[in-house]
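Translate sequence into structure tokens.
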Amino acid sequence: MSSTKYDLVIIGSGPGGYVSAIRAAQLGMKTAVIERDNPGGVCLNWGCIPSKAIIKCAEVYNYFQNAGDYGISHKGLSFDYSKVIDKSRGASSALNKGVEFLLKKNKIDLIKGSAKLLRPGAVGIVGDEDSEIRSQKIMLATGSVPRTIPGMEIDGKIVMTSDEAIMNRSVPKNIVIIGGGYIGVEFAYVYNSFGSKVTIVEMAPNIIPGADEDVSKELEKNFKKSGMEVLTSTAYKSIKKTKSGAKVTVEDTASKEEKVLSAEIVLVAIGRKAVANSAPTSFSFYGSGDPLGLDELGIELDEQGFIKTDENYATTCSGVYAIGDVNGPPLLAHKASDEGVVAVERMNGLDTRVHYNNIPGCVYCQPEVATVGLTEKQAKDDGYNLSIGTFPFKAVGKAVAVGETEGFVKIISNKDNGEILGAHIIGHGATELIAELGTAKTLESTPYEIATTSHAHPTLSEAVMEAALSAMGRQRNF
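Result follows.
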């Protein structure tokens, strides 16, 4: 293996890395992927996939708890959370094998081990044996890890990040979740569904900071209705471990009033940071100062620790590229895949690009949240003359029939020319419905094209059509 010369070597096999590798192989590049763990990256092993399996289990349990609403009765409802985790690990394992199959199918070498940049065109690998491989181009797709709070020890038992929580096989009586972003609210939904007393602590004025304010407020209303405590505009101050868990002191950012929260488990969900040092410090090629080798090659980071790249995803070292979480937000699996494909295509002379304004963001709690483009506030701040259309799911026949009436669809368009600037959905199936609006934005459609496209009845997608009609002042069913 050490004597093999590649056209492209990719460090990391997540949605950015393995998808890039497949596209490179399709374009005739001899390609290798280096992975120190199971194929699939954080998304497949510790994030997107196992968390969605766990969320599905929570959703099913909720359905059984409310079975009477559907004319179904039962006795002795219980759950085994350890089996919930087993199901999530099974989903990850199956897809691990799927990624390996895809790499093999496309004649891509999968090299197990930790990687370090040695010099332009050379990568060192720590595996069963230390080795070195050469490549014309190198792509960094090393992903991200959870951010932590300085001075707070992550012990994996009382204080956890999402990495530990995704494997935790017990449901605490009470849990404090520090951070109300997409990771925090998804775990909040899961633990609340299985009976935990959940408290969310968020420093921003709304949970899911950055989402449209109407959507954030609707989710907060639903969470409080389900029994959760949501503390917004609230900052973490300190933690003290106790025999039964921990006491967390928080502070209202306006009044400065402090509050002490008791919890068996504290989940830190304050975001993620780039992996710019993915190799072990015992690496035999270099010392411990720069495990991935960025400094030696002059690869620059920005103030947040993300790798700087240009429009071709090239770093400040010739021949080295970086895509996905490691080069900056949004930290989304599908954004990493998009960037990886475009980076490879631009290496091969194709003029393609990522449509960043059309990248959707999805949150998989119930009700689901999905968004694409500008929020109402962002659009106003940018000076647009707005036409806003909304439509509630409670007025959609399918939603009423299946008992999923929470939430709404909101479409924000430019009143001057009809351009769709943003779209936001909260409700059952939101993460599936958002694709129509993302496609509409990519095609530069207006609400008219959506409104005049026949939407099957009865479907939840009718809410999208009705929101488009609302943006045109032609709302029919509400």
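Note: The first strand starts at residue 5 and ends at 11.
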